[in-house]
Amino acid sequence: VPSSAAMSSNTKYYWQVQAYDDTVSPTHQGLYSAQWLFTTIQTPTAAPTFSPGSGTYTGAQSVTISDTTASPTIYYTTNNTTPTTSSTRYTGPIPVSSSMTIQAIATASGHTQSSVGSASYTIQILFPAPTLALPFNGATGVSTAPPFSWSSVSGAKKYWLMVATSTAALPTNTSALSCPSCAISTVLTTPSYAAP
């Protein structure tokens, strides 16, 4: 009776053939051929995946790498080089505190090496707001060239000081560094400013 089924990958199979004639009775049967051996092709290991995925984040991330193939061994790089089986072996979450790209490959028994999986992370640190010091909130009779001061922020390299006649005139897009309606708009390296 004819039968067939999908063969498994990376598996040894033996095959043979027998000739016969079932149009006569009794059936004329022949001898079996020699038994030959072949091994099916290995399928690739699934490409590694990353969690969280690529993106821009406002704080450090802990990145896990996983693979859907059973019992994989994963290797990765964080220096923009293509990973190999000589690269760092993945054993647990990778701390990402600065912008980087993680690339990874996976291997597994009975499979060929996976293609390269990658994820890119942009880390934008969100600094806390400085605490304003001078001029005092609600102060009156302030000089037209007052000194300004505020608290320093750990890790900050620069401060953008903006002074305007209304809150609506103050910008909210911190990437612009432009305030056409401001009386003062200047970038400083210290948490103070003395008006000229």
Would you mind describing this structure in some detail?
There is one protein chain. With 196 residues, the chain is mainly beta. The chain is built from no helices and 19 strands. It has strands spanning 12-15, 18-21, 28-32, 36-39, 43-44, 49-51, 55-57, 61-66, 73-77, 88-89, 94-96, 100-107, 111-112, 117-123, 132-134, 147-150, 159-163, 184-188, 192-194. A five-stranded mixed β-sheet has the order 7-14-12-9-10, with no helix packed on it. Strands 6-8-11 form a three-stranded antiparallel β-sheet, with no helix packed on it. It starts with 11 loop residues before the first strand and ends with a strand. The mean pLDDT is 92.
Summarize the structure.
With 196 residues, the chain is an all-beta fold. The protein is built from no helices and 19 strands. The strands form seven sheets. It has a five-stranded mixed β-sheet with strand order 7-14-12-9-10, with no helix packed on it. A three-stranded antiparallel β-sheet has the order 6-8-11, with no helix packed on it.
Which terms would index this structure?
single chain, 196 residues, mainly beta, five-stranded mixed β-sheet, three-stranded antiparallel β-sheet, 40% strand, rod-shaped
Secondary-structure map:
Layout lengths: L11 E4 L2 E4 L6 E5 L3 E4 L3 E2 L4 E3 L3 E3 L3 E6 L6 E5 L10 E2 L4 E3 L3 E8 L3 E2 L4 E7 L8 E3 L12 E4 L8 E5 L20 E5 L3 E3 L2
Parallel strand pairs: 5-13, 7-14
Antiparallel strand pairs: 1-4, 2-3, 6-8, 8-11, 9-10, 9-12, 12-14, 15-16, 16-19, 17-18
